[in-house]
Amino acid sequence: MYRKTEKSSDKKGTVEREKGSNRDTQTSRAYSNLESQGITSREDRNDMVRSFSHTTSNKAQILAMPQFGLRDNLIRCELLKKEDLYTYREDFSFFLGTYNVNGQAPKESLGPWLSCTLDPPDMYCVGFQELDLSKEAFFFNDTPKEMEWTKAVSEALHPDAKYALVKLVRLVGIMLLFYVKKEHAEFISDVEAETVGTGIMGRMGNKGAVAIRFCFHNSDICVVNSHLAAHIEEYERRNQDYKDICSRLQFRQLDPTQPPRTIMKHDVVLWIGDLNYRISDLDVDSVKELIDKKHFEMLHSHDQLKRQIDEEAVFVGFVEGEIDFQPTYKYDTGSDKWDTSEKCRVPAWCDRILWRGKNIRQQHYQSHMDLKTSDHKPVSSLLVTAIKRVNDDAYKKTFEEIVRNIDKMENECIPSVTLTKREFHFKDVKFMQHQAETLSLFNDGQVPCQFEFIQKPNEPTYCKPWLTANPPKGFIAQGGSVDIELEVFVNRSTAPELNSGKQQIEDILVLHLERGKDYFVSVTGNYLPSCYGTSIYSLCQLREPIQDMPQKTLCELVENVDTANIEKPLDIPKELWMMVDHLFRNAIKQEDIFQQPGLRSEFSEIRDCLDTGMPDSLPGSNHSVAEALLLFLDALPEPVVPYAFYQQCLECCSNASQCEKVISMLPQCHQNVFNYLAAFLRELLKNSVSNRLDVNILATIFASLLLKSPVKQDLAEKRKTQEFFQHFLTQGCS
User: Fold this and answer.
1) If I label 233, which of 348, 392, 553, 608 is the partner at 20 to 30 A Cα–Cα?
2) Which residues contact 695 (CB under 8 A, 6 or more apart)?
3) Do residues 226 and 271 touch, judged by C-beta distance below 8 A?
4) Which of 678, 687, 676 has its CA nearest to residue 587?
5) What is the largest CA-CA distance in the chain?
6) What is the DSSP string of 68-93?
7) Sign of CA dihedral 547, 550, 551, 553
8) Chain mean position to CA 624
9) pLDDT tens digits for range 641-650
């Protein structure tokens, strides 16, 4: 379930739709309508670069390479440096809108929100959150509301222009729509959409972001719509969500030699969404009094997002316009009244719009009180952005001059680089804890160079699976340099062999220069064994913390060698007991337990406690312990229901007694763990009024961890595993 959730309902290709029409759709690239034969798009200019790759000259044999080779990169690098010679700037208007619709269907026209400007904007970027709060949307990413809200938006765009829907991307309830005026469609290129879930286990899509990147004329633009963690006290979790989105959301590039493009690698970044930052240090009455007096500046000084930006914890380099409208959350649905429920939420500016880039000015930033469908009010901003346009004649002249200069290069020049260091040691590597070191390359040769980490003989990739080099290949101009981040990260697939000592943190990287020599980079380190990624059988044999055990013992346990341990094995792993016992005592009534993520810093503390035995009790919030338990089950080399029993579970999923019979056949330690977890989850369900859990939620979350397929699982199998596990969650099951 978790791996699937990140798959968006992103519409492949580009959908063009007449404003107000829901039927006349066609799939095409937004820039496929080019009628001019001139060099009008980035693709045409790239073709021009490639067509010159085999110019007859002394350098031809050296620089002529396959598509996007050294010569192409050199030309493009020089073109980038000289961009001011062939571009000019022209203003275009971007309408940005964000609306948390609280799972509602559209009940009123969106015109007061989307058509609030005098003149029609050139582009619309419209984001929604909580599009659908149903369990079906959450677990299967399926919702009819996508079409309903898209139709409502299309019908409400400015009536004085015709718009094309370029791209739609959705992750569960987070949706982003990108429209352009029809006359601009041909100048849109390189359209990509990506999603990142930041929910429980860092994968579920109830929180996270969707993003669309594109090139408009010669400017690269990225639009992000995010929904960050809720609750007033969770600002650190929101900060973590923001950082996760920035690091994990990456767009593939047309040029395969280039590393994926991150959000910040764009000329313009537009960020909208329910960021969920609240008002701190004021009670609800004080906040409402300041609102009534329209003392928004004083109220804004208590805004968590403003404080976090001032501390440079998030959104460094971004700008937000002055807020002179009242908070957009939380209202009684269908009204302009503040929340009158029992919780009586403190009003807050949850819904925000920020931007990053040069030559951008804001025309308006406002909320729209007329819309009453949700407990949030929609927000809009109109930004006027100076976009880089290409003068074709100047481009051609610049291009030809660059090619002539390349042709003058002397072919005896061999590429070379200097490396800052060639040996890297990573100390005390831990499960799911990033460590990174920087390798700097300086081009000290007479010519530009192309580098790449290459595979060693008989190895499938250039490095071990716990290691990455970013970027793994690239281009360095003469006299230039590049920083490569060498990162070590041990996950559930690499932990088992490192825990047992079968594998070590050791690797040799081969850095290859095109037309030049190879350089060797040594990577070593020491790994601290963890209960994460260790088998149930092995953990049941260990009465002491895993990091107190000799490596030889851990290796023998994996190989089922008799370790002369005369003590009876534990019924269940002590680490599992510690987490479940903690949750049983402290979190049985915890709202949204197993649905809200914890903090990564707290997971690290919990892991260290389980692996070292210190301190005596588990640190961290209930949500962090719950997520640590899920990660523990996810990391098991052999699931609680071993792979050998998986098919039997599918075949008997509709028969409760047959399901119980299969569990009775499991190895004793696996059977004990299964029954222990099922009993704990039944206790949770007895408190569902407080914790808001039900059988479907728990079956969906835990079935995917306890009953894993040895190969890729399809949707029908997923449903069968859930049906199987549900038998053990119903009251009265043995």
Assistant:
1) 608
2) 685, 726, 729, 730
3) yes
4) 687
5) 85
6) T-HHHHHHHHHHHHTHHHHEEEEEEE
7) negative
8) 19
9) 999 999 999 9
* CA separation for the pair 729, 683 (Å, rounded): 9
Give dist(CA 586, CA 620) in Å, integer: 11
Query: Which amino acid is residue 640, in one-letter code?
Result: V
Q: E strands of 528-642, at which residues?
A: none
Residue pair 347/279 in contact by the 8 Å Cβ criterion: yes
- Indicate the SS3 state at residue 163: strand
Cα separation of 178 and 408, whole Å? Answer: 45
**Of the listed ranges 170-179, 242-251, 594-603, 676-685, the one predicted with least confidence:** 594-603
Neighbours of 410 (CB within 10 A): 10
Residue 21 tokens, joined: 């029409």
Looking at residue 686, what DSSP letter applies?
T
SS3 172: coil
Q: Is the pLDDT of residue 374 over 50?
A: yes
| Predicted confidence band of residue 414 (pLDDT cuts 50, 70, 90) | confident
C-alpha to C-alpha distances, 633 to 230, 558, 696, 703, nearest whole angstrom: 26, 18, 19, 11
Measure the CA–CA gap between 703 and 724, rounded to whole angstroms.
8
Report the 3 state secondary structure along 292-329. HCCCHHHHHCCEHHHHHHHCCCCCCCCECCCCCCCCCE
- What would the mean pLDDT of 559-572 be, rounded to a whole number? 69
What are the structure tokens assigned to 494, written together? 């690499």
Cβ contact 557:563 at 8 Å:
yes
Positive/negative CA dihedral, 360, 362, 363, 369: positive
